[in-house]
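Me: I'm a chemist; would you kindly supply a protein sequence with its structure tokens?

Assistant:
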Amino acid sequence: MTVAEPMRRIVVTVAENDSGISGELTFTAHSAAVKEPRQVVWSGVRRTTDTTRYNQYGRWSGWVQTGEELIEVDANTCYGVKDRSWGVRRLGEPELPGPIEPNRPMFLWSQLFWDDDRVTHALLFDDSEGKALVRDGAEVPIYQSPADIPGIEDGAVRQLQIVSHEINHQEGTRWIQAARITAADESGTLVTIEHTPLRRFHQRGVGYTHPRWPHGVWQGDSVIDFERYRPDDLDPTRRENYHVQHLVRVTDGDRQGIGILEHFIQGPYRPAGLTS
């Protein structure tokens, strides 16, 4: 990856390799960076999560070669979000079991583009009983040119208060069938966003909960590997397949948008009827 222009443009290059996938993609920012609040989760007396993250919204362009197929990525139609988190998370080599039952919260992360002029962001953590641990929401301006972005931070970002959420899962899975998030803007006006999944991307493909390639696990000095699978062939009851991002179509009254909805529940979650 090359930082062509800090906080404005990055280039990701994948050279030809045995997987058959190569390409070059450029992310161009069309918003300022938006920092999420500190996210702290405890398991008894242990602080198992202490992180924060920034998000930045823009467009992707370039190409991807997969086998014989060349996919052209057009910045006019390909929206994107770039995020960077730092802090402490439950990643890497597992610690020895202790007497405290770990708290495995429900995680929901919604990043939505509306009419090419704004993005709405929502972040939710719940405990296993459905109690709110973290709530964050914002409405972020989108600029037509990166040169119009007002510095690293944007004073025009409007905070949203997350009021409620509702998730319907596909039968027999922890994958979302439909979701609704209700938020209030700074004037108190309620906004209800309906999410309808179109496609499903498994986060195991970038390391989350992967049985062999999880984040932060030593694999050796230099190891290259890849795997192929069809999402519809994956077992929805296996832990490594719980964590997904959905490409979603969204509505807010008469307005329509598109974006991603990331979701992860491991362990019990009473509001969804998950008991184990």
Q: What stands out?
A: The CA atoms of residues 48 and 90 lie 6 Å apart. The chain has a mean pLDDT of 91.
